[in-house]
């Protein structure tokens, strides 16, 4: 049991005491309510599942989705702001124009730069928020806030909250799967998919890109399959004998059931990660045939397959930890080199994912999120008065893109100032973003709560307003 | 019916109608007038005051006193006395505009209207949101804040029960038409007790002994044996580490390991085993370094620095201050939840929404802990060496005092001769000295200065532009190792990064020791060195505006200790590296340049150096204090000094110097150890931050306790700028005050929680409004009082609980009782529990005969730690080495490390405090227990163990049942096992047993 209030819970009132346990109740014991799941929507959901593409390090909005002609005009000039911008390294160089050309795309005319030529082809399916704001310009606290609403270690991430709120559509797979960058885990490691104070069943399960996807999915080869099967049978018999001898309890019954589910997971997981049954055309669309896109393309394709099997939330991570040479979007030194290298990895696969979901009719009830912890500064990170090639962190204004169910497609929402430094119109804080996400999933962010140490905790802390301007 | 009667009836009915009508119409006038205190105050407190109070009430309207209500807010006066209909207050309330979202009930509205109509009389004192408990929040009258009741066990006619606990429990059961269950059998009891008290299964021998023991005290003796077992501290220490979120890495981006945090874990285990009185246990964890200035005290306060700590510091001020505030929230939260069951941290941005904790209280608690900084100290972990070191330190101190006394008169005389204007006390004797406000000369030796790159000397001193300007000296006259660098300096731009003030370097500019500003940490001084070889954060305070001339010094002692000083006071915490030696001729000093042969990069300092000194030894704290006070005015050379001494004094002086040298060597011989613990900083004066915003500070607060605990004085009598030691000492005393009702209630409930799977209050860290109400309030208070009466002995408390009949009940299900109380809150049985991940791993090791019971020490690692691009990662490695077969509490536990089996079995990541673990059942759990390499290795090991002592399957199965389940196998068990073992082998069978419910559950 979780740290819950003393009032008799629904479970206690129903008195699932000894024997009156139905099959449905049993299954929920394993994946859901007995493990602390809320399992209900508050109103009709617009979408049922989510793919979150999480760009680590801070993707530049002024080089991707937020077109600022003012930058080209003032290229090489000094900032004219009254207030000196607060940035991580506190070195305010000269203004730099966007390094990639912007064009209006598709029927909608949504601005997308040449940084993302493939994403540009699905512009009419994208909903871009250009007025995002965060509370920290320090990577890890900002990433925590993006994913948990809080800047500290120890809070549950969105995927865990959604697993807690909605459970999984399948019992054969975890509700929340994480696909880390093949180059390495993000800084902080597994804290990035922590269930925090939510029960551990809501923790993100990271699929390894090499070897067995989930640790301990199978016994080592030294155990013969016949032995393994016989062992499970014997275990069931011994557990049954124990029930007879010592009486039944919810926990004991749930454990018996968990072994059955584990066996099903052993069948499903290898099936879902095996791409051979995908056509060559599909594999090529995702870029599996090219070295620079193969890693991320595989994860994009895998995420679609996981959703098809009933996984609720898949998080694909683009970028590893910080430091040099960079393997994420943290373009302090040279934006062109950095962002070109990172974008080429994800551009085609993400565009393919959106197209693929659409052609399969899945985009109707799936949400794709394409977010980063903060944006980058319109001026370069260099000594005062110097035009450098890199940009520093910017928490005051940045862009995220979304696609899918319940969103107005082919639109952008909110504005930053003329240089793209601060969001000035229709500002959207992460709390608002999270409230909107939960809203699309049919949940009221003020009602999806979990009691922990004195507070009915929420993903949105005590803030958050649904951004109705992006909703259909 | 007669006519007369009919008439009478008509009259009566008529009268009745009139009366009824009249009474309905006249009620407001006839009925009793509304009582403000009883009827109105609760409505206002529950529904209005949250927003309408304080200095900046919503809409400008405060509803705390009548005058303010009459004065009204932005929309005008809120009431027209005696006329509800014309009152703005009524208009808003009756239209449900106020309170927003949650309108008043009709009854509440009518009461309010009547009160307004009756003239809106007010109580004697202004309304206080925190005074009384309402439907929506706790007031100062909340149950847990009241003194312990003098509870006496209820009389019982039943003969059920063994001690006072049972009387309370029985009365509650009977009142709810329930009955206690029968006592569990002895096999169940020994397994239950063993897991509960030491976290391990009983051995077959222990079971046999207990079963054979027919004496009256057999059970009590067993309890005593388990409480005396050193495994008791390991078991209950694990619970404590959950609560204080003990983690061995920093978390966040870098997630550096804390390789020297483990002594705290051992301290907890040892303290529990020694049955240290609980109040003392807690005092040491808050102020141990002050109460007992030995290694033990420093280790105990490791409690305060268990949490995450972000070392990725941005240059930006606001960001850094916010990070510190986040850290304080975690710390205040941990301290007040752990010891007081109060979620004080919820009051950081606004008054607590549910408990009587105003924001000022949060910041007062934060002030009490403001001197806490994360870091490492040097301590002496071995007692013998500690004594030697302490002796040497005392010797040096005494000798230096004597030396100073000897020299000071001579120095004064020399100084007076040298500079008649010198009024201040003279400082210690330097090796070289520069008064840039006068000239560029070395006033002691020959290290005169040359200016480079536009550096200028003005009346203020050496002017450095942070671009090309610096200054260099002639080379040293002799080699130097131990030393002190000192400068009086004005920093031109506090935000500048990386400039060197004074740097001793090899003339090729590669090897150096320097006083550097803002290089790794903005606004802070650091001992700069090549590749940060001898650089670490002092963990001290930031430079702030308006300081003017600052005195900075760094001493490099012979044992490698590097100590910072600022304005004559120690600057943060000293640390130890190896001492760098410099040859005489190829060494120089540079000013304004961190190191190098030419200007450039971020090495240039911008500001003014008024004076600077180089000493060929590490000055003591007292000497630096004197030097700072002297302002570097008087320079007395060695020659001048010696000239003032008599031959006898010269001999004495040389002897003293020799002795100091000897003691210094002793210090070097006995090396000290690093310890992760509190490294106190000068505690800041804390201000309330409005809405928690570091840019919006309000009133200054003093360090003190929670004002809502009124049974003890919350004021510490300390000034807002009191020293860290006074703050933490007072905090420790206030928390552990026997009249603090929360302190004892919270610990007895916590202990109860672990014994029964649920506390008397179901939320061990929250005794506030959102927490649980006690199921047995009288019992809770009785236990709290009893703990105090028994010298805060936790072992006494355990003994009392586990020897009660309540604890000894069977866990058998009872459908009737379950229908009434499915959650067993009234304790009609002992609830069966799944053993925790750690107990599971320890049990498997124990059953396999592989458990390494070594206590204490550094612990084991089941991971490979590596650094990748600045971040630290911890990847699991196989557990195959015997040193890894220790109890799980000794596992090195960084944050965010994957732990396949422990994670799935709900062992919490130490990022957050865990007063209560989840108990989940998942397919991943099943997979990991079936397939994890460690489990399979242990299955092999137990099979080998069984095969060594028994040749036939029958005997092997029977022995395994004793080891794993604590019972004799029945013939049907053996019948089920035999064909399986014959076909698939004994290890396969052992694997199944490890996975079986009978092993995983304690009944």
What's the short story on this structure?
The complex is a heterodimer of chains A (472) and B (1003). With 472 residues, chain A is an alpha/beta fold. Helix content of chain A is 31%, strand content 17%.
Describe this structure in words.
The complex is a heterodimer of chains A (about 475) and B (about 1000). With about 475 residues, chain A is α/β, with parallel strands linked by helices. Chain A folds into 2 domains: about 40-210 and about 285-470, Alkaline Phosphatase, subunit A (3-Layer(aba) Sandwich); about 215-275. Chain A is built from 12 helices and 18 strands. In chain A, strand 17 and strand 18 form a beta hairpin. The radius of gyration of chain A is 24 Å and the shape is globular. Chain A starts with 9 loop residues before the first helix and ends in a 15-residue tail after the last strand. Chain B is globular. In chain B, about 50% of the residues are buried. Among the domains of chain B are: about 35-130, no CATH class; about 140-185 and about 740-830, no CATH class; about 425-635, Jelly Rolls, CATH 2.60.120.200; about 935-1000, no CATH class. In chain B, strands 2, 4, 5, 7, 11, 12, 13, 14 and 16 form a 9-stranded antiparallel sheet that branches. Chain B has a 6-stranded antiparallel sheet with strand order 3-6-15-8-9-10, with no helix packed on it. In chain B, a hairpin with a 7-residue loop joins strand 18 (about 685-690) and strand 19 (about 695-700). Classes of the chains: A alpha/beta (about 475), B alpha+beta (about 1000). Chains A and B meet through helix 1, helix 2, helix 5, helix 7 and helix 8 of A and helix 14, helix 24, strand 22, helix 26 and helix 27 of B.
């Amino acid at each position: 049991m979780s740290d819950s209030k003393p009032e008799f819970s629904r479970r206690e009132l129903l008195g699932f005491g000894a024997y009156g346990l139905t099959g449905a109740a049993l299954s929920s014991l394993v994946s859901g309510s007995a493990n602390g799941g809320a399992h209900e929507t508050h109103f009709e959901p617009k979408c049922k599942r989510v793919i979150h593409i999480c760009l680590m390090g801070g993707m530049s909005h002024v080089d991707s989705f937020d077109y600022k002609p003012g930058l080209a005009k003032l290229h090489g000039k000094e900032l004219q702001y009254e207030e000196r911008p607060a940035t991580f390294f506190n070195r305010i160089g000269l203004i730099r124009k966007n390094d990639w050309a912007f064009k209006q795309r598709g029927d909608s005319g949504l601005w997308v730069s040449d940084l993302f030529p493939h994403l540009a082809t699905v512009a009419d399916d994208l909903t871009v928020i250009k007025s995002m704001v965060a509370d920290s310009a320090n990577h890890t606290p900002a990433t925590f806030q993006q994913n948990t609403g809080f800047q500290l270690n120890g809070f549950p991430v969105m995927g865990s909250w959604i697993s807690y709120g909605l459970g999984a559509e399948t019992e054969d797979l975890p509700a929340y799967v994480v696909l880390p960058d093949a180059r390495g885990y993000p800084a902080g490691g597994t804290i990035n998919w922590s269930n925090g104070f939510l029960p551990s069943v809501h923790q993100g399960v990271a699929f390894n890109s090499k070897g067995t996807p989930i640790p301990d999915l199978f016994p080592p080869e030294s155990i013969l399959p016949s032995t393994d099967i016989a062992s499970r049978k014997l275990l069931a018999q011994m557990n049954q004998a124990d029930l007879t001898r010592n009486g039944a309890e919810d926990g004991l019954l749930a454990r018996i059931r968990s072994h059955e589910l584990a066996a099903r997971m052993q069948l499903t997981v290898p099936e879902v990660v095996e791409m051979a049954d995908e056509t060559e055309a599909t594999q090529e669309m995702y870029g599996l045939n090219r070295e620079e896109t193969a890693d991320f393309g595989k994860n994009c394709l895998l995420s679609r397959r996981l959703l098809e099997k009933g996984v609720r939330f898949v998080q694909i991570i683009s970028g590893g930890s910080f430091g040099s040479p960079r393997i994420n979007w943290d373009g302090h030194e040279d934006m062109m080199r950095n962002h070109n290298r990172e974008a080429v990895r994800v551009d085609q696969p993400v565009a393919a994912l959106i197209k693929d979901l659409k052609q399969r009719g899945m985009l109707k009830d799936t949400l794709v999120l394409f977010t980063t912890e903060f944006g980058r500064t319109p001026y370069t990170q260099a000594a005062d008065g110097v035009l450098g090639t890199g940009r520093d962190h910017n928490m005051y204004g940045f862009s995220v893109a979304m696609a899918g169910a319940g969103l107005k497609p082919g639109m952008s929402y909110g504005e930053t100032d003329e240089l793209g430094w601060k969001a000035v119109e229709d500002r959207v804080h992460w709390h608002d973003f999270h409230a909107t996400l939960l809203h699309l999933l049919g949940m009221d962010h003020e009602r999806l709560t979990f009691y922990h140490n004195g507070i009915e905790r929420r993903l949105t802390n005590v803030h958050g307003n649904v951004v109705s301007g992006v909703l259909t | 019916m007669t006519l007369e009667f009919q008439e009478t009836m008509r009259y009566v009915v008529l009268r009745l109608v009139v009366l009824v009508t009249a009474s309905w119409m006249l009620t407001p006038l006839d009925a009793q007038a509304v009582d403000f205190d009883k009827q109105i105050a609760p409505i206002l407190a529950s529904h209005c005051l949250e927003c309408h109070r304080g200095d900046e009430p919503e809409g400008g309207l405060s509803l705390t006193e009548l005058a303010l209500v009459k004065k009204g807010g932005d929309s005008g006066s809120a009431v027209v006395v005696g006329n509800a209909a014309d009152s703005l207050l009524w208009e808003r309330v009756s239209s449900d505009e106020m309170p927003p979202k949650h309108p008043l009930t009709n009854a509440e509205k009518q009461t309010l209207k009547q009160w307004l109509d009756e003239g809106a009389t007010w109580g004697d004192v202004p309304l206080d949101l925190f005074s009384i408990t309402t439907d929506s929040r706790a007031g100062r009258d909340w149950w847990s804040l009241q003194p312990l009741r003098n509870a006496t066990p209820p009389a019982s006619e039943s003969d059920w029960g063994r001690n006072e606990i049972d009387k309370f429990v029985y009365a509650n059961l009977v009142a709810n038409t329930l009955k206690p269950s029968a006592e569990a059998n002895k096999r169940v009891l020994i397994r239950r007790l063993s897991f509960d008290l030491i976290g391990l299964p009983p051995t077959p021998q222990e079971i046999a002994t207990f079963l054979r023991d027919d004496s009256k005290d057999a059970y009590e003796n067993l309890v005593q044996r388990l409480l005396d077992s050193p495994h008791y501290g390991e078991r209950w220490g694990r619970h404590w580490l959950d609560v204080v979120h003990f983690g061995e890495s920093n978390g966040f981006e870098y997630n550096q390991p804390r390789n020297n945090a483990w002594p705290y874990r051992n301290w907890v285990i040892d303290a529990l085993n020694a049955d240290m009185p609980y109040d003392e246990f807690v005092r040491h964890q808050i102020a141990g370094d002050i109460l007992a200035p030995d290694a033990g005290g420093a280790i105990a306060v490791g409690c305060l620095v268990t949490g995450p700590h972000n070392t990725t510091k941005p240059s930006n001020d606001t960001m850094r201050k916010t990070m510190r505030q986040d850290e304080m929230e975690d710390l205040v939260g941990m301290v007040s939840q752990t010891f007081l069951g109060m979620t004080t941290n919820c009051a950081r941005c606004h008054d607590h929404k549910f408990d009587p904790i105003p924001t000022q209280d949060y910041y007062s608690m934060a002030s009490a802990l403001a001197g806490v900084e994360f870091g490492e100290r040097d301590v002496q972990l071995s007692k013998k060496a500690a004594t030697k070191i302490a002796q040497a330190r005392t010797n040096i101190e005494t000798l230096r005092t004597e030396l100073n006394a000897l020299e000071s008169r001579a120095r004064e005389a020399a100084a007076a001769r040298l500079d008649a204007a010198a009024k201040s006390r003279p400082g210690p004797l330097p090796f070289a000295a520069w008064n840039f406000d006068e000239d560029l000369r070395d006033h002691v030796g020959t290290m005169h200065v040359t200016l480079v790159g536009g550096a200028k000397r003005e009346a203020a001193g050496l002017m450095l532009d942070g671009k090309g300007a610096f200054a260099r000296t002639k080379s040293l006259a002799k080699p130097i190792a131990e030393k002190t660098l000192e400068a009086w300096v004005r920093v031109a731009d506090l935000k500048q990064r990386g400039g060197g003030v004074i740097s001793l370097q090899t003339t090729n500019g590669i090897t150096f020791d320097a006083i550097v500003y803002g290089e790794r940490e903005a606004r802070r001084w650091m001992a700069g060195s090549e590749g940060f070889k001898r650089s670490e954060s002092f963990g001290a305070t930031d430079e702030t505006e308006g300081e003017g001339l600052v005195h900075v010094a760094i001493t490099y002692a012979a044992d490698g200790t590097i100590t910072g000083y600022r304005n004559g006071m120690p600057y943060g915490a000293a640390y130890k590296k190896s001492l760098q030696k410099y040859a005489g001729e190829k060494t120089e000093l540079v000013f304004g340049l961190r190191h190098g042969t030419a200007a450039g990069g971020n090495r240039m300092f911008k500001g003014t150096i008024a004076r600077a000194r180089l000493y060929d030894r590490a000055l003591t704290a007292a000497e630096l204090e004197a030097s700072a006070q002297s302002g570097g005015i008087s320079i007395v050379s060695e020659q001048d000094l010696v000239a003032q001494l008599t031959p006898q004094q010269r001999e004495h002086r040389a002897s003293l110097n020799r002795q100091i040298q000897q003691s210094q060597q002793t210090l070097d011989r006995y090396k000290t150890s690093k310890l992760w613990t509190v490294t106190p900083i000068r505690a800041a004066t804390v201000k309330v931050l409005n809405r928690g915003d570091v840019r919006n500070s309000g009133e200054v607060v003093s360090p003190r306790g929670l004002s809502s605990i009124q049974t003890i004085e919350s004021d510490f009598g300390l000034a807002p700028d009191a020293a860290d030691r006074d703050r933490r000492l007072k905090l420790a005393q206030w928390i552990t005050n026997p009249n603090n009702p929360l302190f004892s209630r919270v610990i007895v409930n916590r202990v109860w929680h672990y014994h029964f799977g649920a506390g008397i209050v179901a939320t061990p860290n929250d005794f506030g409004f959102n927490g649980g109400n006690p199921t047995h309030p009288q019992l809770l208070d009785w236990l709290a009082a009893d703990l105090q009466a028994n010298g805060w002995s936790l072992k006494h408390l355990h003994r009392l609980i586990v020897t009660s009949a309540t604890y000894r009940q069977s866990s058998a299900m009872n459908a009737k009782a379950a229908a009434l109380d499915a959650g067993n809150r009234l304790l009609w049985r002992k609830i069966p529990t799944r053993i925790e991940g750690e107990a599971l791993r320890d049990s498997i090791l124990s059953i396999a005969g592989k458990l390494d019971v070594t206590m204490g020490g550094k612990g084991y690692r089941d991971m490979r730690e590596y650094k990748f691009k600045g971040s630290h990662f911890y990847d699991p490695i196989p557990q195959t080495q015997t040193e890894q077969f220790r109890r799980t509490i000794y596992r090195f536990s960084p944050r965010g490390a994957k732990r396949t089996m422990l994670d799935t079995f709900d062992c919490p990541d130490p990022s957050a405090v865990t007063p209560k673990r989840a108990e989940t059942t998942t397919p991943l759990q099943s997979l990991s227990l079936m397939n994890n390499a460690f489990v399979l290795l242990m299955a092999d090991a137990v099979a080998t163990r069984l095969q060594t002592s028994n040749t036939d399957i029958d005997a092997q199965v029977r022995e395994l049942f004793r080891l794993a389940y604590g019972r004799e196998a029945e013939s049907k068990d053996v019948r089920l096992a035999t064909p399986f073992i014959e076909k698939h082998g004994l290890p396969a069978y052992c694997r199944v047993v490890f996975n079986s419910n009978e092993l995983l559950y304690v009944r």
